[in-house]
Amino acid sequence: MIKIISIVLLFLVAWALQVNAGSYSVVSPDERLKVKVTTDKGLYFSLSRNGKVLLKPSAIAVCTHRPEVDHWKKVRVTGQKQRRLSEHIRALFYRVKEFDVECNEMECRLDNGFTLIVRVYDNGVAYRFRSVRKGEMVVKKEQAEFCFAGDYLAYVPYSTNPEDPWNMAFQSPYTVAPLSELRPELPAFLPITVDAGEVKLTLLESDLETYPGMFVRGDGKMPVLKAEFAAYPEETFLNAWRCQEIVRIRRPYIARGPGKRNFPWRIVVVTDDDTKMPVNHLVYALAAPNRIGDCSWIRPGKVAWEWWNDLGISGVDFKVGINTHTYKHYVDFAAEYGLEYVVLDEGWSDPKKGDIMSVIPEVDLPELVEYAASKKVGLILWAVMNVLDEKLEEACRHYAAMGIKGFKVDFLDRDDQQAVEMVYRIAEMTARYRLMVDFHGMYKPTGINRTYPNAINFEGVFGMEELKWSNPDMPLYDVTMPYIRMMAGSVDYTQGAMHNAVKKDFRDIYSSPMSQGTRCHQLATYIVFDSPLVMLCDAPTAYRKEPECTQFIASLPVVAEETRILQGKMGEYIVTARRNETEWVVGGLTNWTEREVEIELSFLSEGKYEAEIFQDGVNAVKKGVDYVCRIQEVGRNDCLKLWLAPGGGFAMKLSRK
User: Fold this and answer.
1) What is the pLDDT of residue 472?
2) What are the backbone angles phi and psi of residue 26, rounded to the nearest 5°?
3) What residues form DSSP beta bridges with 106?
4) Is residue 444 part of a domain?
5) Does residue 57 have a cis bond before it (omega within 30 degrees)?
6) What is the CATH number of the domain that holds 502?
7) CA 601 distance to own-chain centroid
């Protein structure tokens, strides 16, 4: 009997050692988050917090054109090491000036030419593959599953193109549903947030380069999200409207390139408080560092913009249109209020010609540049992304020499490998000629603003333009998006409407657009939303009729040394404070529910401050334009009680006396 027991014990010990040999774990510096990697019948990762499982074992793999070499079902770890990493990051044109990150990293060298790198931070986890194979690699697919421990509520932006989900503008409101009820016929693009009760999990990616962006899809049955990627383009065509490149046929793989490479970071942010979500820095921190060196020439700022208001100026003695006189009027307005830029949106170059080097006869561009420079205003040119890319260096050299300050590039509407490569190509070339680039019509940012800081802003957001042709629930989106989409980076939301409608009065009118909610809701977006290059979407005529609000917008900073979310709840409201030196700005937004907030000013330094406060007027429930502005003296021991109307907001500036 003793011999039998000994044999059984030896077998159990040997089995335990074998199992342990196929299981590798790494924890966060505070030891609350734990990632486990296992190689039992494939490569899997799981995630737990304080011992509670958040993600059950989820399969991950990179499947290439050489499946006999990949052997993911039988993959083994041939070497493993761990280390503590810490980094102090000086951020440019960002929500903070600098920040520290710390994590524990685990590298698992696999026997198929790949290495899995896992980093566990106190506020999230990230993994990426690295390959060292020789020659070219064709990636047939990447397997990335997220098997949640429960049927949690998910906040999902679906693709808006059921026929071809990979061709669309990455602009979609959030559908909120249990994971098991997500629509299996449509993929969704990142970021996506899943509410697991005690914590929220947000899926993101960073350092996306020479690789397609990640979508995820539910199956309508289980609490699982599985990654999908746009396949590599084989054949494209140019549409007749603006010569935008559209994919017609795709190849049976998602990526191709050298066998020695890094793959993008897959990120799961873990937050136990909604106020930590908009100020999570993992996407920026995991991106490749600055490649352009000196950035002193990059100038963030505010932009007078003609497209949203449909050139809606009046009371002038010239015919308004896409012409030199009209753009000079926008330049005069920008100079009058100290705005740094004017964008010449679609039409200064005939979009049907598809030639970035051509200018319509009605616009004397050299004269405009000279006129704007005399007013200390810079000009930014709109372009379809592939049209600029076709003559990229020629256009950058020509327009930089003329005095143009940057491009607003639009209508990429894809994130396959070729599209991502185009984004990096444009960012690199514009930087070489000291031009900024605003990526409109673009997938969500994935850290390229760290790598190329001249990539000053990004759309990939369901912004104000949607109100020209639809009637969504914009105040709800405005208090949801900062918690989810802004984790990825800044937003080209294009706010600033002076025609503000309450819910029952809103109409979508293309040529005379209005916003949903109150005037103060619009003012607050300039503080709540991260936008280092931010539009004033309404017409100079409208702004000049509202000089108090216009002067306030013009005075607000577009970057910050410090950003805090003072209070808020995703989908309900948010209160954001930003500091530059001793001055603070604070903004708050609510959904269609009115509420009162109490703002404790303990974040201020000692001494007295002058508070300039814009808040909803007593009649803002009926008239969205109603507001009050007051100035009062405050200190760090004071608490301000502010009422927010339905769809309302408040904005204040606190200056040291």
Assistant:
1) 98
2) -145, 140
3) 82, 118
4) no
5) no
6) 2.60.40.1180
7) 29
User: What are the distances in angstroms from CA 466 to CA 50, 159, 515, 647?
Assistant: 42, 15, 10, 17
List the domain range (segments joined by +) for residue 602. 470-488+498-529+559-657
Picking from 569, 551, 570, 576, the residue whose alpha carbon sits closest to that of residue 629 is: 551
Taking the C-alpha atoms of residue 295 and residue 288, their distance in angstroms, rounded to an integer, is 16
Is 40 in the active site? no
User: Among residues 107, 142, 438, 465, which one is catalytic?
Assistant: 465
Q: 372, 332 in Cβ contact below 8 A?
A: no
Which residue out of 145, 245, 410, 626 is catalytically annotated? 410
Q: At a CB cut-off of 8 Å and minimum separation 6, what does 126 contact?
A: 118, 119, 206, 265, 266, 267, 268, 282, 286
pTM of the predicted protein model? 0.96
Provide the number of structural domains found in the chain: 2
Q: Domain for residue 309, yes or no?
A: no
Q: Which of 265, 286, 307 is the last residue of a domain?
A: 286
Helices 324-337 and 547-555 pack at an angle, to 10 degrees, of 70
Q: Which class for 3: exposed (0-12), middle (13-18), buried (19 or more C-beta within 10 A)?
A: exposed
Whole-number Å distance between alpha carbons of 553 and 332? 17
Angle between helices 392-402 and 417-432 (to 10 degrees): 30
Name 143's bridge partners. 61
Mean pLDDT by 10 residues, the chain (657 residues): 34 36 93 97 97 98 95 96 98 98 98 97 98 96 98 98 97 98 97 98 98 97 98 98 97 98 98 98 98 98 98 97 98 98 98 97 98 98 98 98 98 98 98 98 98 98 98 98 98 98 98 98 99 98 98 98 98 98 98 98 97 98 98 98 98 97
DSSP 207-246: ---SSPPEEEE--SSSSEEEEEEPPPEEEEEE-TTT--EE
Q: Catalytic residue at 410?
A: yes
